[in-house]
């Protein structure tokens, strides 16, 4: 059923959205199929849809070329994305000036998930999707994960399934709709539309799609590289959904639930002050990121098969040839960004007056649209740093001084990154850990962190991913 348009003002009183936290909490408690069975289903879809990914030199990267004037790596159509150069100057951090390649993708992709009540419980339509950079091929992904270049069929392939629900969201009820950034070290100004639309009519899933509850998705997050980055960022934008019953008890899951329900008078400081702190961080930091030709990027070498830093650190730009049986096109070639090492993101948590708080960081990256976003306590690739130049709290989160609640490898987005894997950690410190913080750190409750995800360019993608992992603790 297509809902009619109306100009009528909504009537006062409660709406279905007012009940959403309770419905989400019910979905988080419901686990009709165990994670092992769902992982087996995912493996079966991978066997049913064979694919092949091979390395190719730049000379054989059909459809792509280095622009004669700039040396930028661009697609012949002018669509999709490009690899350009960036010159960065900043007033903070261990390095105040550097040059690097960066991905520029001006398209605003749709990361959309369909929701529907099944037997009284909210379910989410997830896709078994292959991406060329995935470390394990196929992962649980949003219903739609597509750029305009794809759903407008610039590749001359098939249309993305179910995309009409997100191009015409009046078909259902919008639960989430917010523009969010992506990796600020690898993308320049990248943003995606994170959207969840609930429908009431029957939606028959294609054989590569499955309806899952939040509880099932939370269980899958305890296994490495099963729920892809795009699904994690969209689901993290859901409003808080802990219920009072789940907040009773002594488990870390109960502490998470209490933090998700905590009022401002239970927090270290009110949400308004947290927002003021972040705004001051955005206004007070100087970062000038200037686009330059890729050929002018210093300390990087372009060879036949990759672009790499002279130190061997950070990342490489590589070429891949992809053959896939269940994608919109059967084969294509593209560049990918391949990190040199496994990343690490971690939240340090502490109980302040009995309420669990997260230690968040004012994270400065050259690719952010607004200079600074709220990030995890630690966000880095440890191999990129020397012993004398480690990020704050990195040694702490890997030490025996903390209690580890979560430690799972999760994949980054496989459409642009090759085998990019990040270790996700949630570690708790004791009452002897100082409550006073450096100026660029702040304590927030889960309720405050969740509230900030409802706004664009406030919480970075790494913190959003960790937020969903926190909600999965039991």
UniProtKB/TrEMBL annotation:
Q: Which Pfam families match?
A: Hexose_dehydrat (PF03559)
Q: Which organism is it from?
A: Micromonospora craterilacus
- The source's domain of life comes to Bacteria
Gene3D superfamilies per the UniProt record, alphabetical: EvaA sugar 2,3-dehydratase subunit (3.90.79.40)
Ranges for domain dTDP-4-dehydro-6-deoxy-alpha-D-glucopyranose 2,3-dehydratase come to 36-238, 273-470
- Give the Basic and acidic residues compositional bias ranges: 1-21
Give me the ranges of the annotated region Disordered: 1-31
InterPro entries, A to Z: EvaA-like (IPR005212), EvaA-like_sf (IPR038153)
Its recorded name reads NDP-hexose 2,3-dehydratase
One example of the protein's molecular function in GO is:
lyase activity
